[in-house]
Amino acid sequence: MKPTRHPRYARHRFPAEVISYAVWLYFRFPLSLCMVEEMLAARGIEVSHETVRQWALKFGQGYANQIRRRLPAPDDKWHLDEVVISIAGTKHWMWRAVDQHGIVLDILVQSRRNAKAAKRLLRKLLKTQGMAPRLMITDKLASYAAAKRVVMPGVEHRQHKGLNNRAENSHQPTRRWERIMKRFKSAGQAQRFLSVHDQVANLFRRPANTIAADYRKSRAQAFRSWAEVTGGAAGF
User: Fold this and answer.
1) pTM for this one?
2) Which of 33, 130, 173, 233 has the fewest beta carbons closer than 10 A?
């Protein structure tokens, strides 16, 4: 296969196929930068883990923004949840919203777990989604109700821990990555990484209750979309 020279990768020694593959590995799976370096080396590609990190910083968010624009509109039932994470020995909160099918709508890493933080999340969701949900489901944290009354007063709100498993389960991939990377180094790093990670996961998410043949078709379409987003072929 002849490597692709996309204008986005001008002045880069490696072609689009190699760069996009490295970025995909890093954000798709719970792999450290050194692990990605070894996986590339196994394919005869000699590149340092620092180069992979720079590729992730330079191209990751752009890929994520294009993926977000390509995904279908979210359903009108949103699940919101927050989970504590430790960053440099300080407690932070990762706020996440998903729709009823598990598609991650947005995340926000904050140092507080109060009404002001909940308002920031809701406003960010309205800005990125361009619409309000029909129904919002959260746990029993009072901050959600206070924020909803100000930001989304007309939205139905249900607070019940048992109804919010969809959002709680969406934290699991982040927890796996945390263990591999020995925690996030800063709130900014966590926000940057998760903003890309969640969109890549959305693109390659396996739909529930699908047969193998349908999943293979879905996966093939995801790889085609990834190739269009990154400007390179699906493999190399």
Assistant:
1) 0.86
2) 130
